[in-house]
Structure formats: structure tokens, C-alpha cells
Protein: YggT family protein
Amino acid sequence: MLYQIASFLLDVVGGLLTGACLLRLYMQWQRVAFSNPIGGLVFALTDWLIMPLRRVIAPVGRWDLSSLVAAALLQLVQYFLLWLILGAGAAWAWLPWLALFGLLRVAISGLIGLLIVYAVMSWMQARSPLADVVARLCAPVLRPFQRIIPLVGGVDLSPLAVLVLLQVVMIVLGHLQAGVLQG
Structure:
């Protein structure tokens, strides 16, 4: 029971901070202005880690590698702490793999969350700075599907198709992670 509680709390905190680092990376890559409520939250959650890393790791083009490294480090720390709680067995060599799978899981979960918010806001025709930011972040993912899937009664079903695909990717990722851990 204590392991489940610790795992849950580490997953929440690690997922939130890792997600914020990945969102910062993605917003910079998409050239989304940070002068909105989402940008302010992302900066507040990540500046303490990313700014010191930025002194050592320079951006490469539109890619802020310090945000990516910060996200990977957060996942590594999360799985290291879980490893210590479990009793620090011989499986320490798997920690980088667990961190990589955790990073992918957080990225996919974050994208799923963005798509759900986008779909709900599009149904309500909400016009706000938040809706514009979410739409800009979802556009590159939805665009290929919107070319293939026609509007049905004026409703864009492409977010639903992407959500289904992302759930399939999460299932495959879970099986790959289990396969790697089993050897």
C-alpha cells in the first residue's frame, strides 16, 4: 500500500513537471507566445530547472534541448526514487529505459489531454486566448487527419481518430515496456 501511495504521488508530481517541460519545448517549437495563462504556468513550473540547464545546453534551432533534458532528468529521478522505495534491487540498469518510456507516456498523455480540451472547446465555439493556444498546439497533429476525415454534420471527428490512435500507441508502449523489463 505504501508503495502504491508513493508511486501515485511521484507519478503526479513527476508527470506534472515533466509535462510542463515537454509543453515548454513544444510551445517553443510551435512558436506559441508565452504571454498567455498557459505560458505563465509553464514558466512558473519549469524555470527553476530549465534556466540553470540552459547555461550548459544551448538550443539547436527551434529545439530547446534544455527542456527535453529537464523532462528526461525528472523522469529518471522519479524512477530512481521508485527503485529506492522498492529496495534498490539489481534492476538499476533499467532505469534509463523506464525514464524513456515514462517520458513517452507523459508526452502522449499530455497530447491526449490537449486534444480533449480542444474537442470540448471546439464544440462550445469558445473564443479565448486559451482556446487559441490549444488550437495552435493541436493543429500539427490534427492536420493530416483532417485531410482524410471529412466533417460529419459540421463536426470535426479528427480529434476522436487521433485519440483512438494515441490510445493504441499507449497500449503498444505498455507492452514494449513490459517486454524490456522481462528481458
Notes: The longest helix spans residues 95-124. The chain has a mean pLDDT of 90. The radius of gyration is 18 Å.
